[in-house]
Each structure stands twice: as C-alpha cells, then as structure tokens.
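Inverse folding, one chain.
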C-alpha cells in the first residue's frame, strides 16, 4: 500500500506528474521500481529527475514503511543519519533518542519528539523489515 508520494518531502508537483505517467503513485511502488542503481537510473530518466533527488525520495519511501513515522519524524531520522531501514536497524535506541532530542531542541520540529520507547520500536521494526535498496 505505502503512502502517497505527495507525502514525501521533496516530491514536487512536476516530479509527481512524472511519476504518475510511469504508474508510480505510492511509496511502495517507488521502492518496487527503484531498488537497484540501474532501476533508479531508468526511472530518473523516464520521470525526468536528477538521480540524486530520486535516491533521496527512495530513502524517504523506505523509512515510510515504518508504523508511526510521519513527515516530521522522517525528517528527524534523516538528519540523524538514520535515513533508511538498514541504517536505522544499526542504531542504538538510547543514542538515537538523544540525537533526535538534540535535533528537535535545535530545530523545534515538533512539540512531541519520539520517546525512547517509540525510538526502540522504530529500530525493532527496522530490524524486522527486509532491506529493499541496493547501492
């Protein structure tokens, strides 16, 4: 199912139109069409976007597979260095929680940063999910 692509940071109107022409309208479809570098190159060419932007959107689609992750938490995870499922799975809950709290204190992204229990759950979910992005 996935999330609609317009919910991913960086998915502009022009990019969304290009994806729609390719039959890509959800995060799951984006992941299905762009798991390898060759797939991403082909899709970037077909949509008319830079491959760096496409990879950024693919990473956001990857993290959107987690329950409880919305746009704000996704931004925070990206800034923390845990922008993909495989990166998040390698994190220590206490270290990541402290990092997310620092990011939020500095940038004031939300009034409700994730609790340690939520961060632990995100990491546990990430460990249970298969890695879909190959580099």
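Residues assigned per position:
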């Amino acid at each position: 199912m996935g999330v609609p692509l317009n919910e991913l940071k960086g998915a502009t109107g022009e990019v969304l139109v290009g994806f729609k022409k390719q039959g890509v309208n959800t995060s799951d479809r984006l992941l299905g069409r762009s798991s390898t570098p060759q797939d991403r190159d082909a899709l970037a060419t077909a949509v008319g976007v830079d491959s760096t932007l496409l990879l950024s959107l693919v990473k956001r689609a990857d993290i959107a597979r987690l329950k409880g992750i919305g746009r704000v938490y996704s931004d925070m995870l990206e800034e923390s260095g845990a922008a993909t499922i495989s990166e998040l799975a390698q994190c220590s809950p206490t270290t990541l929680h402290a990092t997310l709290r620092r990011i939020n204190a500095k940038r004031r992204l939300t009034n409700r940063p994730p609790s340690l229990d939520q961060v632990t759950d995100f990491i546990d979910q990430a460990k249970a999910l298969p890695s879909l992005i190959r580099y």
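The chain has a mean pLDDT of 95. The CA atoms of residues 101 and 113 lie 7 Å apart.
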